[in-house]
Here is the input.
Amino acid sequence: MSTSGELEARATAAFATQFGFQPTALGIAPGRVELLGNHTDYNGGLVMAVAIDRFTVVAGRLSTGRSCRAHAVNFLGNVSFDLDKLERSESGDWPNYVKGVIWAIEEAEDTPLTSGFDITIAGNVPLGAGLSSSASLEAALAFFLLQAGLVPGRAISHYRGDSADSARLKLAQVLRRSENAFVGVASGLLDQFSSLFGRAHHAVYLDCETLEHARLPLGGPGPAIIVCDSKTSRRLADGMYNRRRAECETVVAYFQGQRGFDAVKSLRDVSLEELTEHWDRLDPVGRKRARHVLAENERVRKGAVALRAGDLVEFGRLVSASHASSRHDFENSSEALDTLVEAAEASPGFLGGKLSGAGWAGCTVNLVRVDQATAFAESVRTATARKLGITPEIHICHAAEGALGREIG
Ligand code: GLA
Here is the structure.
């Protein structure tokens, strides 16, 4: 694993090779794992996540005129575009995320960026694995743009450096909009929020309805956060995410019919008791999805209490209950993810484990007693290889600080 310092050095060196100058500023932002609150964010629910010490770094400097060039070290990819002609490319690749951030910041500021720029992007967040490599790219780019003084307006330009939480929250919303409206991914606020609000030794909590948020102690030394990457691709599942959103909507529509549009804006306005009461009249698929979402909200609430009390055993139990609910009610698990969770349950130091993020493929996250992290990793690797014939990639992670920008040199 490369550290953030090594990544910064890699992005800086790649910039000099690619463009023949030294970069003047950089932005760095972590990936995240979701701990509790699976598919709750776009349902006006509660989420808990942890920013992890896997990062994206964007290093760059201003260019002359309005042209921009971006070089992505990991993809060996280059793209050039004109700041005044931001067009989404159909290939759905990383350049859309870059252009989307510019577009959304300009929209929020109601002013164009002051100048074009050149950047290199380097990162070690596993791609397409459910660890929010895209949100970390968005946040790193935003902090580069702010640090380099390219954002002239008033709405978000005071985000520079380690600024106030209210400004970070606004930026998270702007970055989410870049994904929703420009890239075309209908995701919630979880990913951008986590990348911006992360803190060492802490989980992050967000109420997606009221935007109330907190950082909750994981304790010292705290559990190891072990991510097991099934190496199965998420692209296969892309359409499923929107389908689940629509299934949740059927339940919202039913209760709107009962109680009116103003009373029911999202699943957040429906209680578990009410769902049970109307169970037989609800769509048989939608009601299971809704049960998962509402039970997840409860688990986030209880999880926050457990973390504040330093009760990692209870917290781990809630994390494992979340996986069971995803598996049976939300049906966004897979054979590979279930195998990883089962292997984890039988491994030393296990406190709790679940799929992370959208689901269907990608990663599981496990909380493990810190002194047993290595034995746990070995045990999961062996058991999964035996059962599935694939060797998962195991990342022993730590809670990390959220995005920031810095001058270089
Ligand atoms: C993806 C999305 C998030 C969230 C999770 C599921 O990671 O990007 O907004 O909906 O799935 O909890």
Residues 4-220+400-407 form a domain with the Ribosomal Protein S5; domain 2 fold (CATH 3.30.230.10).
